[in-house]
Amino acid sequence: MIDGNNKILKKRGGDINFLIDTSAFQIFEEWHANFGINILKKIINSKSVNFFIINDVWVELCQKRDENYMNMFLQNTLNNEMCCSRDWKPNQFVVIQNGEPVVIKLNKISSTDYCQIILCQNHENLILVSNDKRQLKSANTILKGRVKSPTMLIDYLVEKKFDKDIIEFKKITDKMKTKKII
Q1: Among 15, 119, 158, 163, which residue is least crowded by beta carbons within 10 Å?
Q2: 40 near 28, Cβ under 8 Å?
Q3: How far apart are CA 41 and CA 72, in angstroms?
Q4: Tens digits of per-residue pLDDT, 93-118?
């Protein structure tokens, strides 16, 4: 599974690669519906930045969306690198401390969230994007800065001057925040 993901990342990956969680995907869809900006389409059409989802997220998203819409994300779908029951709520992670593997206990999270953190841990070129507070808290401990919320992703893209529409979107949402509209 790792070799397959390495091939996909090498072929489809950009200089910067984001792994998008369902919760972040939903935020991007809300922004598209409310503000007319399709963040994912802008990223997928870029040569320097790309995003991926894991197969469990793809299946989850397909349950509530048109299959033709979801098929455009198939080429950006990575495989889970571990098998686990959907009912399992893991909270233990292996990290290297002082050159030795150590097990640490963090938040209990869904098996899909856990698999995404492990995938990013195995592939240092992936940055996890999530809006799930429990997942973000665990991921921050494991991934050491390679974690962003959807808003942090926008800030990052603006900082990199990624796209003029995203810069305009940020200006609009910043104004709305100061007026407490969103």
Answers
A1: 15
A2: yes
A3: 10
A4: 777 778 887 877 877 888 889 889 99
